[in-house]
Amino acid sequence: MKIIDKVEYFGRRAEICFSSSRRGRRNYYLVYTLLYLVFMGIIGAAYVYAGKSFIWGPYGDGMRQHYTSLVYLGEYLRDILYNIFVEHTFEIPMWDLHIGYGSDIVTTLHYYTLGDPLNLLSVLVPQRYTEYLYDFLLMLRIYLSGAAFSIYCRYHGNKPLPTLLGACIYAFSGWNMVAGFKHPFFINPCIYLPLLLLGVDKIYKKEKPYLYMSMVGISCISNFYFFYMLTIFMVLYAAYRYFMLFGKIRVKEWLGWIGRFAGYGAVGLGCACVLFLPVAAAFLETGRADADVYVQSAYSAEHYQMLVGALSGKYLSSYTIIGVSAVCLPALLILFLKRGKNLALKIGFIMCCIFLCVPYIAHVFNGFSYATNRWCWAFVMLLAYIFVKVFPDFFTLSKKQKIALGLCTAAYCLYILADPYARDGWNVLTALLFLGAAGTLLLGYAFWQRHKACWSVFLTLAMSCSILVNISYSYSEKGNDQSSIRWFVPIGEAYSEIYEPIQKTVKSFSDEEDYRFEQESSGVHYNSAMVTELNGGQFFFSLANGNVSRFLSDICLNKPLEQKFQNMDERAYLMKLLSMKYFAGSQRTVPYGYEKAASSGEGLPSVYADEDALPLAYTYDSYIPVEEYEKMDGIERQEAMLQGVVLEDSQLPKCEAEIDAEEADYEITDLKNIELSDKGFQVLADNASLVLRVDGRSDCETNVVFENLEYEGGSSKLSILLNTKADGKKIGKKILFYTEENNFYTGRKDFISNLNYHQEPVTSVKLTFEKKGNYRYDELKVVCQPLDRLASYTEDRKEDLAENLTINGGNVSCRIRLEEAKALVFSLPYGNGWNALVNGEKAEIKKANTAFMALELPPGEYEIELHYTTPFIKSGLLLSLCSVVIFIVIVIMKEKRKRKTK
């Protein structure tokens, strides 16, 4: 009994220490911090023991997008401060040639780092040490999510102990442990949601609206994507609170409340417009905004069977990640056993379960894009809050309720053991914890009623054990293999992963700033060039320039993602058009016209150079109308664009493009698990293959072309492998293809795969289909692209070259002298933010070759300047300044009214 008495004493002292006084609040957050440090210390120890950082990679989004963006942001902010305080010029770069083929900085980085207040710390950390800042910010976000939840619960009068336990459940949920560690900013809505809902409550209680306005502004400026979802939940919560407070709709009163929320929300949104307006405009200009999206009518049977397991840790399809502590399960049962109480929580839980069952709702929550449950963080908050609210009811169960709790507990455990989808070691362990918690409650109910402090201690231990199980599951290969620790970047190696030897070699060339470089597909570190300040061309961010995406579609590149591209498939004509002088790769994949220029080190790819490459600005004396260009196929387009510039209209003479590419005859042989059909193949097994016996041509690029490729079968992501051998070299390429059912489907059905240049004719191509099913197409062609006239066309484009071409962020300048009227084309992506000055006067910039920029110039000498400003950023800034003024006025008026009342 002495032990029980001591536990009782400890529990009572804890209640006193956690009182609502200022000291009690301080003690609460001190204990929360200690618990957080224990759990986070266990996680950190596991990573340190494995020798890993918190950066998901090296080829995951954590390395390629989040870490790279954070490194870039720190340097970007330091450059701005340098311009202001050293150069004394208020110059903010808004465009960078090193991001893809050249991209808007604001709209590209906003989704990842720009706008998140926490990321401002990057200005203080050198590039080499940003990895440790990345780790710290991830841990800080987890801490803040639990702290925000605590603030919300304490405001609503919940007792300290259940609030503390709920905060830990919330902070260390499966969402934060899996989604948050892969994408750190996915934790941000877990911070913002409790504070936004608290802001709603304050307005209903006619308290100060500052928190509501501030959180609307912060959540919007941080990330427009999650702000959209936060707004949906904020509206649902505001409606729920209205009915809880007023019972029924009184139209005049109801409209008044809508006006308050809309007005204060507009002020907060206005404060964020400096970033929100440009990003919203950029999104609407991308192909993703108007792409056709397939939404299935229902999820798979496996999804529904595993939903129960998802609450305690199982990770399902469509980003259904929840994973709350096992102690939430008895709390859910008690919630529904107690009639007449917590009706809103019951409705909320049922609604969320329905949301998880209907793909169309996931489609709506994802901005009417593909169906994904990236809103699960809101469900996690609801489950954690249910535990907090139900906690006192653990001690008030009737006999019938105890029996019902016992039966439901047994039924749940039997389900986990019986269902093959839900049954795995971790779910069984969670079920046992649930059974242990519920069984302990029921068997010792009389004891717990007499010693409630002991029950509180027991629940704390059970919650801790359950969180440790969730943590272990989250990073195990049986839980979510892609999130297991082995996939994370080793400690201290992130910086060197970006500054790889190949990039250092390219950087050593004196003219690397005047051209681009391309890298072989394998081993590409997307977005690294933006940090190393190279003109790389690799790009992998959510918002891409829509003109570049259309260009990649026009040339039928063998990679279908519009926001992810890495090279031009070694196609010589395209590499000329994009000013690619340097190529890094193996000797067997070297494009036509490239010679070895340097070695990157033993066992590493060499760097090759094309000494006849086009610079970033070149000229044309004739044009191809867009309507004629659109009638061409992908091979014809690449050849035509080097002869005449593609424009909507022009004063230049019309170009009659001469096409040398020709189809080669072929015969289909050596079918393995494939049956031929009219315009298609019936592939009977995975990795089935066939061989095209080709009547090839010497001294040319050989391309395999699919037109209107379609698929029916059991997969939404497909690969067709192509292998050939010529000139003693083996070449392997891949066509990546998505069906309408895939989240990343963009409508692309035409593909060209270049098997590279060979002096000998290509005589056979092996096609391997990784997935079985029915493949259909309008045309399957083998096209030979002679390169005899490539040098001549290149020479024509270099006849009148721009002099002193400099590109400094969004400022481009050059001089040119022309003997005849020509179009000066910059192989920089076209965008609405560009303006041109020719000899000091404004000039029209035309969209050239689908994606790039051109100035039409008559004979003469010209000083040319191009300047870029992010579209709508000035309007957004004006709105933000006005909104900040309105915010200040509201504060002043509220404070004056408060003083008068006193």
From TrEMBL:
Q: List the Pfam families.
A: YfhO
> InterPro entries attached here?
Uncharacterised_YfhO
What top-level branch of life does the organism fall under?
Bacteria
Q: Does the keyword Membrane apply?
A: yes
Q: What is this protein called?
A: YfhO family protein
- Asked if the record carries the keyword Transport, the reply is no
Keywords attached to this Swiss-Prot or TrEMBL record, sorted alphabetically, are:
Membrane, Transmembrane, Transmembrane helix
Q: Where are the transmembrane segments?
A: 29-50, 132-153, 210-240, 261-284, 316-336, 343-362, 374-391, 403-422, 428-448, 455-475, 872-893
